[in-house]
Write a structure and sequence with these properties.
By secondary structure, the chain is of the alpha+beta class. It contains 2 helices and 5 strands; from the N terminus they run βαββαββ. The two termini are 22 Å apart.
Amino acid sequence: GSHMSKKGQTLMLFVGVVDPSQPDRSDIRPFTEKWTQIWQSQLYNNHVDLQVFVIDDNRAIFMFKNGEQAFEAKKFLLKQEFVSEVTIEGQSFDG
């Protein structure tokens, strides 16, 4: 569907996080919490309204009140060094 059709609808992104300094470590939750908070602030400063829920050591949900903004956020997140993938509406994109 078009991005416009998501205006005003809640939409979720799944974000995979990777710590390049310790790729084999599973207990990177503090790292994931720190970086997802940083990304949330950066997006928020860009007038993107979202909530973040860390659901696994290396995985978080970004929830957008206005689904249109999720597509903006996807572009932003895929440029971030510590993002391994972003999943939106069942489609996965490699970071």
